[in-house]
Each structure stands twice: as structure tokens, then as C-alpha cells.
Amino acid sequence: HEELLGSGRILQKALETESLFSMIFWGPPGSGKTTLAKLLARHSRAAFHELSAVAAGVREVRAVLKAGRSNRELGRKTILFIDEIHRFNKAQQDALLHAVEDGTIILIGATTENPSFEVIGPLLSRCRVMRLPPYTNEQLVAMLERGLTEDILLSQRNIALADDVRRLLIESAGGDARKMFNALEIAASRYGKQRSFTLTKDNVREALQQRGLLYDRAGDYHYDTISAFIKSVRGSDPDAAVYWLAVMLEGGEKPEFIGRRLVILASEDIGNADPQALVVAASAFQAVHMVGLPES
């Protein structure tokens, strides 16, 4: 991310002047949030602790804060990286406030959700929000080339990719570097221990299907699918509606996005023909926003 770490950019200056600050990286999956946090830790020579908000609680946070206080007495800074920080509840976020304010830790949070809605105000005001956009196709091309020659596992094999195979990998990733490399690794695994081989489009398509990656949440298929879903509901075709709903959820679509579109449908297309439709749609959206999908 040259816009943040390039020469003269904000994070580069913070590293050069040893004035790293607490921040929240906001961006879609696979946009480099975790990688960027680890790069900052490595170049700042700070102690680095990583927690996942899905698994960690207040106890784990307090353990890191204790280590941070010890490090501060020794003149060393401590970075606490919290992945999916939006999953921390208010009490868990409150536990970070004092330590961030007095410099015990430098907090780096990563989130795919809008921090204005998911991070409590007092903590958000002590952090700078850094927006990380999806990678461009040009950036993914460069990353793919580098991965084939420098990655510990991929570089040990001679993997040949035709231009159309590269294009399929990159366009199907939708700006998500992790998706691209996951698909590449799955496709390459079909060749077992073979050291030299040529990947085909069929290999990649099979890998994409296995990971549900053909559904691109930022591309044309994304909008075509939600359009087909809405038209199916509007046309009173429950079987088609359920099918397109399953396609979106299986492909990793956020249920909140689907819920919002249903609220719009109920308001604009159904309206006064059935006033209860908007109540039902709004209730469904609120429920899925608060609870999420059931665990599988």
C-alpha cells in the first residue's frame, strides 16, 4: 500500500520519526490489513502481540496490557494487533481505553466493517482510521509474480501459467489477494508432489468452485445475482429466490447486504400493497445484523 507506506507517506514518516500511533485498518478481506500491521511491528522494533477478537476476551487483553507495562519500563514499545476488532463488545473495547491513552500499547485494529458503527466512540477518537481499498488488478499481477518466485512453498515448484489462467485467477479474486493465492494453492495441490507443471483454466475453475470463489462480491456477477434474487421475490417465485439466496450466501456475501436490499424492495416495490412487508424485512435485517448467520 504505497499510499500509506510509500516514501513520504504517513506511516513511513511515523516509522522514521519513531512516532507510531494507534490506528484502525478498515478494508475488505484480503486487502493486506494483517500484513501491514506485521510490517509496522517489524520495522518499529516494537514487541508485537496479535489477538483475534473472535477468540480472545478481556483476560487475554489484560495479559497483553501487563506485558506492555513491563515493556514500557524497559523503554520498549508494544503493538497490540486485534483482528476483526468490530467483534469485540463494549466491555472488551473499554478495557483498551486507558492503555491506548497513556501509551502502554499502540493499538492496531483490523476490521471489514465501518468503524464508526462498530468501534465505541472513546476508542475511535484515540485512533486514526486508515482506509485500505481492495487491491487493483495491476497490484494483484505484481503480487502473483512475486509469489511464484518468492513464496516459500510456491517458489519450490515450477508452475507455468498461461495469460488466460492468470487473468482468471486475478479477476476472480475481486481485489482479494488471499482469495487469489488460496485458489492458486488449491489448483497446484492437484499435481501432488510433481515439481513442474502447467496450470489450466479447468484446474483454477475447480479450485474456485471448491472455495466458493467464483462469486465475486465486487464484480458484475455480484450485482447480477442480487438482481436475479430481487426479481425472483418481486415475481413471486420462491424456488428461484431461495436458489439465488443460497448462491450469494455460499459465495460469502454478507447477509446484511441482502437484508438491506430486501428492505429497499419492501419499501419501493411492495409499499402500500402490503404494509407488513416492510416491518418483516426491517425486522429480518435487524436480526441478522445483531446475530449473524447460525453456526454451521
Automatic annotation (TrEMBL):
Q: Where is the AAA+ ATPase domain?
A: 19-136
Going by the UniProt record, its keywords in alphabetical order are: ATP-binding, DNA replication, Nucleotide-binding
An example GO BP is: DNA-templated DNA replication
Q: Which InterPro entries match?
A: AAA+_ATPase (IPR003593), AAA_assoc_2 (IPR032423), AAA_ATPase_RarA/MGS1/WRNIP1 (IPR051314), ATPase_AAA_core (IPR003959), DNA_pol3_clamp-load_cplx_C (IPR008921), MgsA_C (IPR021886), P-loop_NTPase (IPR027417)
Q: Which GO terms fall under molecular function for this chain's record?
A: ATP binding; ATP hydrolysis activity; DNA binding; enzyme activator activity; single-stranded DNA helicase activity
List the SUPFAM superfamilies hit by this protein, alphabetically.
Answer: P-loop containing nucleoside triphosphate hydrolases, post-AAA+ oligomerization domain-like
Similarity-based family = Belongs to the AAA ATPase family. RarA/MGS1/WRNIP1 subfamily.
Q: Which protein are we looking at?
A: AAA+ ATPase domain-containing protein
